[in-house]
Amino acid sequence: MSNVLSPQETMLQEVLHGMSLKQKSLPSKYFYDQRGSELFDEITKLDEYYPTRTERKILSENLVEMSSYLGDKIQLIEPGSGSSEKTRILLSGLDSICCYIPIDISGDYLNMVAEDLRNEYPTIDIQPLVTDYTRSFRLPEIHSNSRKIVFFPGSTIGNFKRKTVTRFFEVVSEIAGKEGGMLIGVDLKKDVNVLEAAYNDSRGITAEFNKNMLRHLNREIGSDFNPDLFEHHSVWVDDPGQIEMRLIAKEDHKINVAEEIFEISEGEYIHTENSHKYSLEEFEEIVSPWFKVVKVWTDESDYFSVQYLEPR
Ligand SMILES: C[S@@+](CC[C@H](N)C(=O)[O-])C[C@H]1O[C@@H](n2cnc3c(N)ncnc32)[C@H](O)[C@@H]1O
């Protein structure tokens, strides 16, 4: 019998573990089923959500300079590619990309996006990979004479705990290899009002996105979370500097997960996501065991940065 757990078994284990903690917590990767991916796409278009439009602007305005760092024949690898919207800026603007490997846990959505990309970019080899990039995975061995560039936009790096972020950079430096590079979007520290508004939008899309995780879990592992008994709230936590997304119980109730009963009291919350914000110095210190920061581009308000890194 195999010891390898199926994605559902892994999900169940992680949910049971998270709900047993003193501070209840659910992994943010479970936001993303088809509906979650669509809701995230809507979030990126909200007025309050500055990261996407700011990062897009930095990429578009500096693409020519970026291309001089990336090389002549590139294999572009993107963990957590989602809609690949920002990637289209690179795919359209750089003729050095021979192959694109989008990687995402949200399989149906990824395959749908990959099909569109194949039609839009017939000369680029598009090779989607459905996997959880926090677990070990293998890339297809193709285009061996190209340079591997890992593209990691969206400040998804902010979703890692400070303790586990180092492991991610270790994995990425192995993927890129000594000759490769990384182009990464990193959200910067700024006015708390701007940050909190970005994660508590007035149309309630982020609230819907947060609660959708509960529906996703119910469908996959048969739990009975009731999204109507929770309220979405995002808050800035100064130390070490992160937005925390929470689901606060509106009343005392019980939740059944695989016949384990978890009690939650009114006002108690389930933590669902961290979005760490960094200063340029803090980020450089975190990556420094594996990567050298070669070049940083920012916007005029210094809200966001795109950084080019090379393995040490
Ligand atoms: C914040 S979105 C960013 C999407 C896109 N890169 C961007 O910048 O707009 C995070 C994406 O990563 C995917 N994702 C999150 N955790 C993942 C994991 N552990 N393994 C694979 N994909 C993951 C989600 O499905 C989602 O598409």
Structural description of this entry:
With 312 residues, this protein is α/β, with parallel strands linked by helices. It has two domains: 7-31 and 193-276, no CATH class; 50-190 and 279-311, Rossmann fold. 37% of the residues lie in helices and 26% in strands. The chain is built from nine helices and 13 strands. The strands form three sheets. Strands 1, 2, 3, 4, 5, 6, 12 and 13 form an eight-stranded mixed sheet that branches. Strands 7-8-11 form a three-stranded antiparallel sheet, with helices on one face. Helix 5 (107-120) links the parallel strand 2 (97-104) and strand 3 (125-126). Helix 2 runs antiparallel to helix 8. The longest helix is centred in the N-terminal third of the chain and has 21 residues, at 50-70. It is globular, with a radius of gyration of 20 Å. The N and C termini lie far apart (41 Å). The mean pLDDT is 95. The protein binds S-adenosylmethionine. S-adenosylmethionine binds next to helix 2 and strand 2.
What binds here, in terms of ligands, is: S-adenosylmethionine
Helix content: 25-40%
CATH class of the largest domain: Alpha Beta
Question: What summary fits the major beta sheet?
Answer: 8 strands, mixed
> What sort of overall outline do the alpha carbons produce when their principal axes are compared?
globular
In CATH, the architecture of the largest domain is: 3-Layer(aba) Sandwich
Summarize model confidence as the mean pLDDT: 95
What is the CA-atom radius of gyration, in angstroms?
20 Å
Total strands: the figure is 13
Uncertain ranges: none
Termini separation:
41 Å
- How many distinct domains? 2
State the fourth-level CATH superfamily of the largest domain: Vaccinia Virus protein VP39
Structural class: alpha/beta
What's the CATH topology name of the largest domain?
Rossmann fold
Strand content: 25-35%
